[in-house]
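Quick one, C-alpha cells below. Sequence please?
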C-alpha cells in the first residue's frame, strides 16, 4: 500500500542523514556547554582561591603570569599559521600536506618548549634572592607555558579535524579537575595554588595528546615552515600587539597600588574569564568551520551570514549570566571573601566589557579570508583601545579599580563596533581583494 501511495519508506541511508544533521547542530552546543561547565568550575575555584589567598600573593602570581603572553614570541606565529592553513588545506582535500603542516608545528613547539625551560632556569638564578614565593611562581609559570604551547597546537588539530566530540569530553574532565584540585589550595595555600595550575595544565595537555585526531610525527619540513611563517607571522604580530596591550590594565594597577591592587582586581578578572567562556568556545568552533568552508567554495558573504548568527547567539547567552553575576557579586563577596570587597564595583563594570567582547568573534572571518589589510586595521584598533582604555579611564574617572574597569568596558564596545564594520566591509564590498587561495602547487612552485 505504501508503495502505491508513493510514501517513502524509511531506509538506513535516510536515518543516517537525519542523525548526521541533528548531530551537526548539537555538536557546537555540546562543545559550548562543556566550555561553560568548565568556566563555572573555574568560577567556583577562583572564588574559593580568593577566599584563601591574600591579595598580595594572588597579585604576585597574576603579575608573573603575564610572562605567558610574552613567551608566545618563541613560536613566531607557527601556531597562528597552523590555525588558518590546516583547516584550509583539509577543506581543499589536501590531507597529506595538512599532515606535514601539523608535524612541522609539533617540531617547532618542541624546540620552543626547550627554550622556555632554559629561560625559566635563568630566571630562577636571577631572582634567587627575591624569596621563595617568587621562585615558586617562576617554576610554575615555566611549566604552564610549556604545556600551553602544546595545548595550543593540539587544539588546532581537534578543531580542524572536526573532533569536537573528543574535545567536549576533555573539557568536562578539565572541569572535574578544576573542582577536584581545590583542596590543594585549602591545605597548601599559595604553593597549592601554583601546583594546582601546573597539574591541571599538564593533565589537559596529556589528555589532548592521547586523544589527538592527527597522529603525525614531529618533523622539519622547510616548505611547511615557510608557509606557516608566511601566514602566521603577520597574524601573530598583530595578535601579539593586541594581547600585550591587553595587559596594560594590570600594569596600570601595579603602578597605582602594587601587587595587592592587582590581586583585588582579580575578582574582575574571574568574572570576565567566566563570562568569556561561551563566546570563546563558539569562536573556537566557528573559525575552523569558516576556514574549511572558504577552502571549499570561497564564498565571502557566507562567512558574514554564519558569523552574524553566532554573534547574536553569543551576545544573548552572555548577557543572561552577566546580569545574574552583577546581581550576586555584591551580595556574596562581602560575606565569603571580604578581603576583595574593594573590587566589587570593578567586577560589575567588567561584566559589561564581557558582553561587548562577544561581538568580536565575527572578526574570525577576516582571518579565514586572509584579508591582511582589514586584519591590520582590526588588530591595531584593538591594541590602541586596550592601551588607551585604562589610561583614559583613570584620567576621566580616577586612579582606581573602577576607572580601569570603565576604560576596559568602553574599549570593548568600540572594538565590537569596529569588528562588525570591518568584517562587513571585507565580506560585502565589491572588488575588495583578499589573498586566500594558497595551494600545495603554489607552495611547491616556491622551491
Amino acid at each position: 500500500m505504501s508503495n502505491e501511495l508513493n510514501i517513502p519508506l524509511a531506509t538506513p541511508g535516510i536515518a543516517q542523514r537525519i542523525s548526521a544533521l541533528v548531530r551537526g547542530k548539537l555538536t557546537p552546543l555540546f562543545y559550548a556547554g562543556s566550555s561553560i561547565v568548565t568556566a563555572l568550575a573555574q568560577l567556583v575555584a577562583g572564588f574559593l582561591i580568593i577566599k584563601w589567598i591574600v591579595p598580595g600573593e594572588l597579585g604576585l602570581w597574576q603579575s608573573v603570569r603575564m610572562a605567558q603572553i610574552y613567551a608566545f614570541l618563541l613560536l613566531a606565529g607557527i601556531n597562528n599559521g597552523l590555525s588558518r592553513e590546516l583547516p584550509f588545506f583539509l577543506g581543499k582535500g589536501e590531507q597529506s600536506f595538512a599532515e606535514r603542516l601539523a608535524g612541522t608545528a609539533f617540531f617547532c613547539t618542541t624546540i620552543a618548549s626547550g627554550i622556555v625551560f632554559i629561560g625559566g632556569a635563568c630566571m630562577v638564578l636571577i631572582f634567587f634572592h627575591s624569596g621563595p614565593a617568587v621562585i615558586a611562581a617562576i617554576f610554575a609559570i615555566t611549566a604552564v607555558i610549556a604545556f600551553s604551547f602544546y595545548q595550543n597546537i593540539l587544539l588546532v588539530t581537534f578543531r580542524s579535524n572536526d573532533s569536537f566530540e573528543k574535545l567536549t569530553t576533555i573539557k568536562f574532565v578539565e572541569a572535574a579537575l578544576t573542582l577536584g584540585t581545590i583542596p590543594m589550595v585549602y591545605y597548601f595555600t599559595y604553593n597549592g595554588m601554583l601546583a594546582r595550575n601546573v597539574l591541571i595544565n599538564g593533565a589537559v595537555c596529556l589528555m589532548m595528546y592521547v586523544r589527538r585526531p592527527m597522529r603525525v610525527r614531529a618533523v622539519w619540513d622547510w616548505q611547511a615552515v615557510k608557509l606557516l611563517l608566511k601566514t602566521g607571522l603577520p597574524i601573530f604580530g598583530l595578535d601579539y600587539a593586541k594581547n600585550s596591550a591587553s595587559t596594560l590594565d594590570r600594569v596600570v594597577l601595579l603602578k597605582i597600588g602594587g601587587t595587592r591592587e592587582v590581586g583585588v582586581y582579580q575578582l574582575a578578572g574571574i568574572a570576565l574569564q567566566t563570562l568569556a567562556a561561551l563566546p570563546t568556545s563558539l569562536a573556537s568552533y566557528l573559525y575552523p568551520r569558516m576556514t574549511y568552508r572558504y577552502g571549499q567554495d570561497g564564498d565571502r558573504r557566507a562567512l558574514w551570514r554564519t558569523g552574524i548568527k553566532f554573534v547574536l547567539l553569543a551576545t544573548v547567552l552572555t548577557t543572561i549570566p552577566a546580569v545574574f553575576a552583577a546581581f550576586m557579586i555584591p551580595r556574596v563577596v562581602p560575606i565569603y571573601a571580604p578581603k576583595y570587597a574593594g573590587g566589587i564595583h570593578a567586577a560589575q563594570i567588567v561584566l559589561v566589557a564581557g558582553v561587548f567582547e562577544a561581538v568580536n568573534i565575527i572578526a574570525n572571518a577576516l582571518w579565514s579570508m586572509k584579508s591582511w589589510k582589514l586584519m591590520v586595521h582590526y588588530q591595531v584598533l584593538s591594541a590602541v583601545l586596550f592601551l588607551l582604555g585604562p589610561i583614559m579611564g583613570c584620567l576621566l574617572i580616577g586612579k582606581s579599580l573602577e576607572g580601569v574597569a570603565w576604560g576596559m568596558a568602553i574599549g570593548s564596545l568600540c572594538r565590537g563596533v569596529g569588528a562588525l564594520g570591518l568584517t562587513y566591509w571585507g565580506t560585502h564590498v565589491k572588488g575588495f581583494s583578499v589573498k586566500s587561495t594558497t595551494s600545495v602547487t603554489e607552495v611547491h612552485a616556491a622551491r
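The chain is about 80% helix and 0% strand. The chain has one domain: 26-437.
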